[in-house]
Each structure stands twice: as C-alpha cells, then as structure tokens.
Amino acid sequence: MELLLIILIGILYATGIYMMLRRSMVKLLIGLILLGNGANMLIFLLGGITKGKPPIIGEGEKILSGLYADPIPQSLILTAIVISFGLQSFAIVLLKRVYVLIQTDDLNDLNTPDTDI
Amino acid sequence: MISAVLSGFLFAMLVLLFGKYVKGKPAVLTTLLPLSLFAYFLGMLPAVQTQPLLFSYRWIPSMGIDLNFKLDGLSLLFSLLITGIGTLVFAYASYYLKGHRYLDRFYCYLSLFMASMLGLVLSDNVMLLFVFWELTSITSFFLIGFNNDDPASRRNSLMALAITGGGGFLLMTGFVLLGTLAGGYSISAMLSSAEMLKGHAWYGWVLFFLFGGAFTKSAQFPFHFWLPGAMKAPTPVSAYLHSATMVKAGVYLLARFTPVLGGHPYWNTTLLIAGAITMLYSAWHAIQRTDLKGILAYSTIAALGTLVFLLGVGTAEAMAAAAVFILVHALYKAALFLVAGILDHETGTRDVTILRGLRKVMLPVAAAGMLAALSSAGLPLTFGFIGKDLIYEATLHAPAYGYILTGIAVLTNILVLYAGFQAGIRPFAGRLPEGFRSVHLPDLRLWVPPLILATLGLLYGMIPALADASLVQPVVQALGAVSPAPLKIWHGFNVVLLLSGVTLAAGFALYFIRMPSARHQLAVDRFASLSPETLVVRSARGFSRFSTWYTNRLHNGNLRSYVHIIIIFITVLLAYKLITGVHLYFDIRTNVAPITVYDLTVFGIILFAIWKTVSTSSRITAVASMSVVGYCICILFVIYSAPDLAMTQFTIDTLTVVLFVLVLFRLPRFLRINDRKVIVRDSIISGLFGVLIAIIALEVMNEPTNKETSRFYAENAYLLAKGKNVVNVMLVDFRGFDTMVEITVLVIAALGVYSLLKLRISSSEKE
Amino acid sequence: MKSVILRTASNYLLPLLLLFSVFILLRGHYNPGGGFVGGLIASIAFMLHAFANQLENTRKLLRYPPGALIPVGLAVSLLSGLAPVFAGQPFMTALWFSAPVPIIGLVGTPLFFDIGVYFVVIGITLTILFNISENIL
Known about the structure:
Chain A is mostly helical and 117 residues long. Chain A has three helices and no strands. Chain C has one domain.
C-alpha cells in the first residue's frame, strides 16, 4: 500500500505544480490545494501507516500499547488542514476581489514589472 | 560605568521628546551631560594609574557576549577626549546652530554619537565593541548628512556610511575569526593567548579583516576620501567627529590590539606602509587646498597616518609618541576646526585666499588659531613640540630603515606645519580687507572653546609633567610597552633637535614663499579620474546597474516564472544529490501493508478525479473533482487509523467547496489559451518534480524512524493529561500553545477576508 | 434555494447538528472529535440553515454577528491557559476538577481550552462564509 501512496503523493505534487503554472488564478488556487493535500499525505505516510489502530487509549487502559498509529503526524496534519482552510478562504476572496476589479482571472493581466513602482 | 555609557542614549531620547524646549535658550544646558561625564572620568584618573578598572554585566552569556567594560589608560585618554571636547562642542553648537529648525535632532544625534563612542572605547568585549563601532558609523552618517537639503551633503554622508559600513563588515568577520581562534570574545582574555594567535595559520586573515575595519574608519589610504567629503557636516561635527573622536576609532582599535596581535612582521610592515603612504599623500593634498575645512581634513588624515605609522614602528618610544600625539592632535585640530567654523560663521567664506587680517576684529579667535597652529607646527614650548620630538626619536631608533622613516616623518611634518599655518595663522595675518570690516567678535560660546583647547596645548607644552604621569604613562602601559622616560622639553643638543629645527625652518620658508591659490587645487583635480574615490563610485554604479538588470530578470513580477525557477532549481539540486550521494534501493518486502480492494478503489477514484481536475474546462467541474480528491484522502485517513483527521478533512473540504462555489459559480469557463509547447514544458517540469518527491519519500520510508517522541505522548496522554484521544490531547494540552497561536492565525485570516469584502474600492484603484 | 423540503428539514436539522457538534466537542478528549471538528460541524449547520432559509433569517436567529464569537472564544482559551497561573503553576498547565461529570468525564482547563477553540472556529468560519454569501448571492 505504501507504494500506491507514494505514487499518489508524486501525482499530487506534480499536478499541484502543473496547475500552479497555469495562467488562470482559479487553477493556481486548485494547484495550491492539491499541493497541500500532497504534503499532508507525505507527512502521514512518513509517520508510518497502520490499519485499524487509531491513537486512542482503549477502555480501561492507561497507556497506548502494541501497534498504534503515530499521533504526531496526525496532530501536525490536523493543524495544517485547519490553517490551510484560512489560507484558502482568504485566497478565494482575494481572487473574487481581483476579478471584480479587472474582470479577468488571467495572471498575465496582473503583471506589473517592479521597475514601475 | 554602564550608566555613563547609556546616559547618552537616554539623553538623546529625552532631547527628542522635549525638542521644543531644547531649541530655545536652554540649548546650552545640554552641555551639562558631557560635562558631568567628563568630571566622572576625570575622577577615575588616580585609580586607573595603578591598574585598569573592570565592570561587567551579564548580557548574552550563552554566546559569550557580556557587557564588559574596561577602563585602562588608553580608554581613559579617549573617554576624556570624547567627553571633554564633547563638552566644548556641545556649547559651541548651541550658538553655532542657534535657531536651527532641527537643533533638537542635532543634539539627539550628537549625544547618541558621544555615547556610542564612549561605549566603543570602553568595551572589553569585541562583539560589544563592534555594536558601538557600527553605532558610531550610523550616527556619524546622520551628522554628516545633517543638512539634508543639500544633495552633496546627502551624497557624501552616504559615501562615508558606505566606506565605514563596509569596513565594519570586514571588522565583524575579523572579530568572529578572532573570537573563534581565541575561544572567547573578551579582549582581556585574548591578551593571554596573544602568542598562540600570532603563530596561528589564520593570523594573516585576522589582520586583513581587522585592518580593513580600522583603515576605513581612520581614513587610511586608499579609503581616505570619505573624510574630506564628510566636511559637508556642520563644523562642530567636523571638529568633534573628524578630528578627535570617530576617525580615531580605527587608531584606537589598532592600539587596543597592539598587545594582542602586534609585534609580528606582518603587523608592523602593513601599518608602516599604510601609515607612510597616507601621511605623505594627504599632507601633499592638504597644502593644495584652499578651503579651510579641506585643508584641515587632509591634515587630519595625515595625522591619522602618522598615528598608524607610529603603531607600525612598534617600539616603546613609538607607543609613547603615539600616546602623546593623540592628545596633541586632538587639542590643536579640534581648536583649528572650531576656529574655521567661527570664520565661516562670521564671514561666510572658508576660502584661505580671501580671508586676511581678521585678528583686528576677533583677537581671541586669532589667539586660539595661532596657538593651535603653533602646536601643530611643533614650536618649542607647545605640546606639539614634545609630540614631534618623540616621533623623531621613535623613527630614528626604529628597528629598521630608521633614516627613511625619519625622512618621511620630517617631510610630512613640514607639509602639515604649512597646512596648520594656512588654517590657523594666515586668515588672521596681513591687512584687513574692506569687506571684513563689519565682522565682529562672535558670542562667548564660539570663541571660548577653541581658546581653551589651544591654551591647554600650550600649558601641556610648558609643563609636560601635567600630562605625563596621569595620561601618557597609563596609555603606554595599556599598549603593553614598558614606560619610557618621562616627558621633557629639553633633551640637549642632538639629532632630534636638529630635525625639529629643520622642520620649522622649512615650514616657515614654505609659508612665506607659497601663497594659497586655486591653481594648486585645479592641478590636483586633473587626476581625479584616477583617485580611489572615482573608482569606488564607478564600481558602485556598475553594481547598481547590474543589480537592476538582475532584479528585472529574476523579479519580473510573474508568479509562474518564480515557480519555474524555484522548482527547477530544487529539482536539479535534489536530483544531483540523489545521483551522487545517496544509495538508492527499494525493498518492497519489508514493512509494507498489503493492498486491499478498498485501497485500489479509492486510488482509482483519486486518479480519475485528479485527471478530471486538470483536464476540465469548467471551473465547477474542476472544483468538484478537486473536492473528490479531498474526500478520498479522507477515506484513506479513515482506513489508516486517523479518525480525527478524517473528520476535519471532511468538514473543511465541504466548506472549501461551498466557498468556491459561492465565489465562482458566476465566473466564465476557463480560457483555452495555453499553447502546446508551454503545456509540454510545464508537464515535464512538474512531472519530474513529482517523481523526485516520490523517490525521496521512498528513500525516507527505508530509513528507520525515531518514535521516541510519539511514545512519550502515547504513554503519557492519560497519565499526565487525563485524556484518551492522544491527538486531541496533544492539540489542547501538550501543544496547547501552538493551538492558541493557530486559532489566532485563523482570526487574522478571517479579519483579512472581512476587510477585503468590506473594503470600498477607491477611485484610484478603479482606473 | 427555495426548496420546501430543505427548508423544513433544516429547521429540524439545525438543532440536531448543533447538538451533534457539542457532542463531538465534548467527547474529543476520549474519542475522535474536538474543538476544531465540532466548530466546523456547527458552522456547516448554520450554513445549511442559511442556504435553506435565506441568510437574513439565520442572522436573525443568531441575534449577534458571528464575529462576536471570536473574541469570546479567544478569551475562553486564554483564560483557561491563564487559570493555572493564578494557581501558581506555569502557563497552560492542565488543572482538573477532582470529581468526574457524567457523560463528559473529567472536566479541566483543557476542556475549556477546547471550548474556546470551538467558539473561535465557529466565529471565523461563519464570518467568512456569511460575508462572502452576502456579497455574492
């Protein structure tokens, strides 16, 4: 299964970057989200994947024992997911704002060379 | 001690706060600060004669940087110069800049400078010294550019900052190197490892960086040119910074490190050569100038060259000569500068070809100028005479090339004598021109300070014992040399006296024969295109042009080209590393979970959804398929024991889709604008990157992971935090602070969204 | 979205979902769940109500603008972190009541911290979503 996940991560990264290289702002955002998903999966995978043993201490027990899923990557990813929601909502609103202003979502129309400033 | 250093900084802030009051009459009261500091250091005199005083405050002990201050003879001499001349300059400026719009700022800068300079000479820790060193560079930048309406003033202050700042950069490198070699940043501690340092393979580099700092600060050839430019500063600043204090910081540094690093042939030869070239070059330039401050600037450089030269000679006699000469020069040069300031202030010109006969209207000023000039000439009974005697004695008894060195010194002194007379005597001699008849004696605050300085020069000259035991001997001790014979006026008839006579005679002859004229300066100016200044300016311009070009190439404002550059760079770098340094191996059998039907199904759906996301031309389809990817990942989380993640991912994904749909459903379809070539290129780049990430992931998988931290949380979640869901316990308990910050970040995002939506587009934006 | 079925259903779904979100929040310490997820579920519940019944009605139902929940939540979290300081322990040390409360289990500062997170998340999400839909719908 790890192999499948690795392939999946590779694909997520590749498509994320590919979408970021498009001219449409919406695609840029989608690319960003895919990339984020890829990164989350990477962290998840590198912590080691375990089936059917969530890091929850069982009834009547005091410590996690035996085989269990690693809690650290999970809490990291949880944080990442929530933060990325903040990022995404901000980016989406920004996108809308830019669209209202210049009536296009083509990134080429947004270019202002730095020398003009 | 620390309050003595910090009081200046505090005072600077107060001056700004109460700027309105300072600008009026009470400006002269600011003098109380340097005066009280002067008294404080004067009180230290007896104590320092026996042994240095140490003061220590802990600052950053983990890095070995402490607020260590050390007051020995050298520091004390400089402290007294800084606060003493500071007092006079503060008083002088209160009249000189009377009614200036930014007088409060001026005093702010001036006291900041004074405090940094004090800190510089008192620090016993090289890092601390460096901090103050940079502070003097910055405050002097503000002071030189004080008349910031004047483009030349701005340009020259920038030049001074560039040169001294560049030197500071070298100096820091040198200090770090020195600290690493010596195993600590304390100068006192370095003394004990002096022999080791001198024998070290990197000794040459230490010297290189140290000299880089010292030579730029003390305006040694070829970094001398910022100092004449810095004469754009108001004259009190020139008198303070460019005669007595800041430019001597480099000399101070060299003197301070003489016991640590000195005595090696590298040290002596470099200093000798640099000092000698600087002396001759700038003394020659000094006599070509017609501007009073220009003359003084070049003769100051010559004096600095002399000091470096003496440190280069390195004998005990040379050390004593240097100690005396520091004092001599500070007294007469500051006086001359202040006199020049008075002339400028009262007559409106600084041209020595015009200024004549002013003794008739301002006798005390003339007296001050003459005494200072005579001291600079080294006439018997002035302190300058003793200084010059010692210099000749030191060069004559130098370990090698004594006669050549003496020749250089004599020649420089003749030229400096001429320059000093030019500035101190010629404006007052001769007949008073019609135009200057209305000139009158200025306020007390202007003419008393130079007169005090000049009189001190005379006093020390007549009774050298006054300066000897209290000031000079401790300096020589601090420089690590045995104390030479006490200062005397009369040594009997010998070679030194003969040389003094020759110097005086030649100087007087030159003064009467050679009249100042603009022609001389023009003759020198023809070579301006070859001067180090032009080279620096040119290279700075070239650099600026290059960086403009480079910035426009790389920072073209096009996001995609940034992404391209970053991704390609990372890919190439990682690929190179993987190919050369990492042993690639895949072991499919170990630790691999079997693939089930669920996995395969989910995997298939994700692949399809990703393909759909990339290929569709409808935004809604793209967003929907992207959310399918998210949901599938959510299922993977469920299968692989991460219920919390699955729940969060699920809800967030839902909300994201809602957001996207809300915003996007009215936007048009994607544009079909990409041409084939671009698509192929981007596919290759992103494909390669994906493959690389996959390979790295695979490699990391092969490494055994350290589960120590995880085990800690797993074992203590219930025992310490009384929770059973380890992930949640980590979020709200073990790592609660992170979560706190995280929700704060979310709040900021929400505020951003809110303000973006509520913001009214202003008319300028709509264009 | 003018569907009668959805509107009727949402009137019942809102309290149910809210109850569920509180349940998720409270069980977080022992089972999957917690402040983040709970808050998100609650926001989805309100969003659903807003889609079905017009935004104004949801706003009326809430009485206060959702943004007001943000400072409340932040304050609750911060106070729960500060509470140990008053008891003479370092910032964010967990304090627990000795007797367990039925259903919820032990009550302590981490629970209040989580409740604070819950409110902040609801506040943020609803602020963002409401504003966007107001400006666009």
